[in-house]
């Protein structure tokens, strides 16, 4: 017999006999049950009631745990909401990609030819409207400082996305210096190209290469005439950090003093990459602690490596 039948059954006999409402007098309700219902049904009701009480108690016991988890991981929920849910909804509503929406905002709010205005506008959009994993203003300042200190001539960027970090670096380069910026996603590369040109940088300063990094690195010398890299900024998929670093080591393009800056080594993290850096003895390194771009409360860091040269 299903619970619904049981409940409708046990109102009938005594509600016609007793004038008061069963809901208002639970004792009478119970008494009536005991009086009118067969024993098997009474047992079934009692076991269902105690079953419900046990599940209620279990749910109550888990409530503090659930609350603790929600509070502890709230920043990750915010990240998921902003980076995934908002994106899906807006993709459906606008018919544009998130990168195209960002570009439209920058185009209509920033001053063309002014790299800082373009970066500031991007930062506004990413902090208030939608999330894009640009390096952002805080870690961006670390990048600015390390790049300025090293004054590189040949820069390799792995992962341009919308061109935010490309513009960030290009604005600080000395005359004659060049960035080879690698982006494998064609749609992202179209946006990156538009952002870089909007900021006023031409082909001589920024060469955008639309191919995967593991195809580009071995051909940098042949296809682009690069003899030595002075600065490498790694900000592509984290699983590519280690294989690409090893490709760079084997390419002969790293020289003594070449600086490699790798973003997000704590979140999402690149443990194999860090392990290799520590064990290989090829680098002096340090990790700059920071928080994830545009989201408070998620710890992240950038690894700065200085290549010591072949021993
Ligand atoms: C985190 S975003 C880069 C953000 C950018 N550096 C900035 O701060 O503005 C990562 C980008 O790397 C690209 N990417 C990932 N793996 C790649 C690879 N193996 N080769 C080239 N591009 C890659 C992705 O398509 C994505 O656009």
Automatic annotation (TrEMBL):
Key words of the record: Catecholamine metabolism, Endoplasmic reticulum, Hearing, Membrane, Methyltransferase, Neurotransmitter degradation, S-adenosyl-L-methionine, Transferase, Transmembrane, Transmembrane helix
Listed GO CC annotations: endoplasmic reticulum
Residues that span the membrane, as ranges: 53-73
GO MF annotations in UniProt: catechol O-methyltransferase activity
Gene3D superfamilies on file: Vaccinia Virus protein VP39 (3.40.50.150)
E.C. designation(s): 2.1.1.6
One of the Pfam families matching this protein, by short name: Methyltransf_3
UniProt GO BP: catecholamine catabolic process; developmental process; dopamine metabolic process; methylation; sensory perception of sound
Localisation: Endoplasmic reticulum
The UniProt record lists the keyword Transmembrane helix: yes
InterPro entries: SAM-dependent_MTases_sf, SAM_O-MeTrfase
Cross-referenced SUPFAM superfamilies: S-adenosyl-L-methionine-dependent methyltransferases (SSF53335)
Enzymatic reactions: a catechol + S-adenosyl-L-methionine = a guaiacol + S-adenosyl-L-homocysteine + H(+)
Family: Belongs to the class I-like SAM-binding methyltransferase superfamily. Cation-dependent O-methyltransferase family.
Identification of the protein by name: catechol O-methyltransferase
Species this protein is from: Synaphobranchus kaupii (Kaup's arrowtooth eel)
């Amino acid at each position: 017999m299903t619970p619904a039948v049981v409940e409708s059954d046990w109102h009938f006999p005594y509600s016609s006999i007793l004038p008061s409402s069963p809901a208002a007098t639970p004792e009478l309700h119970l008494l009536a049950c005991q009086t009118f219902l067969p024993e098997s049904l009474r047992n079934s009701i009692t076991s269902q009631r105690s079953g419900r009480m046990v599940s209620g108690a279990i749910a109550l016991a888990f409530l503090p745990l659930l609350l603790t988890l929600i509070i502890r991981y709230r920043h990750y929920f915010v990240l998921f909401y902003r980076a995934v849910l908002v994106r899906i909804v807006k993709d459906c509503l606008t018919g544009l990609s998130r990168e195209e929406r960002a570009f439209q905002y920058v185009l209509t709010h920033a001053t063309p030819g002014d790299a800082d205005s373009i970066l500031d506008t991007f930062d506004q959009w990413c902090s208030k409207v939608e999330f894009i994993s640009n390096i952002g203003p805080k870690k961006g300042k670390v990048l600015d400082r390390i790049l300025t200190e090293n004054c590189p001539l040949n820069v390799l960027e792995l992962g341009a996305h919308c061109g935010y970090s490309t513009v960030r670096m290009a604005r600080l380069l000395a005359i004659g210096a060049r960035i080879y910026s690698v982006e494998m996603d064609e749609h992202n590369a179209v946006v990156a190209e538009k952002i870089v040109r909007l900021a006023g940088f031409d082909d001589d300063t920024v060469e955008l290469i639309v191919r995967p990094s593991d195809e580009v690195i071995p051909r940098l010398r042949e296809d682009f005439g690069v003899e030595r890299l002075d600065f490498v900024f790694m900000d592509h998929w984290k699983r590519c950090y280690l294989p690409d670093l090893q490709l760079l080591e084997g390419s002969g393009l790293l020289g003594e003093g070449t600086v490699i800056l790798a973003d997000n080594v704590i979140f999402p993290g690149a443990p194999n990459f860090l392990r290799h850096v520590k064990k290989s003895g090829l680098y002096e390194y340090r990790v700059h602690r920071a928080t994830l771009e545009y989201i408070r409360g998620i710890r992240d860091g950038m690894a700065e490596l200085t290549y010591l040269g072949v021993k």
